[in-house]
TrEMBL record:
One of its GO terms (molecular function) is transferase activity. This is DUF2798 domain-containing protein. Keywords: Membrane, Transferase, Transmembrane, Transmembrane helix. InterPro entries: DUF2798. It comes from the Bacteria. The keyword Transferase applies. The chain crosses the membrane at residues 7-28, 48-68.
Length: 76
């Protein structure tokens, strides 16, 4: 089952934010790396940050895309 390409923006935002939050949560929980509860803390941090950042990414992406287009020159 594939998602229609008209939803590509949303799929990209969800995947990108999930990966970014996964790495950021690992970095944030690094001080607890040698504790038994590390994986639980890491997954909890990741899920919370991902749930909070997905709407931000989806709403900000069009604005960021416009800004980048205004700062760059096509074809060079």
């Amino acid at each position: 089952m594939k998602i229609p390409s008209r939803y590509e923006h949303f799929v990209f935002g969800i995947v990108q934010s999930g990966l970014t939050c996964l790495v950021a949560a690992a970095i944030a929980t690094r001080p607890h790396a040698f504790e038994i509860a590390f994986v639980g803390r890491w997954l909890s941090s990741w899920m919370l940050s991902w749930a909070l950042i997905v709407p931000v990414v989806l709403l900000a992406a069009p604005l960021i895309r416009s800004l980048v287009r205004s700062l760059t020159v096509a074809g060079e």
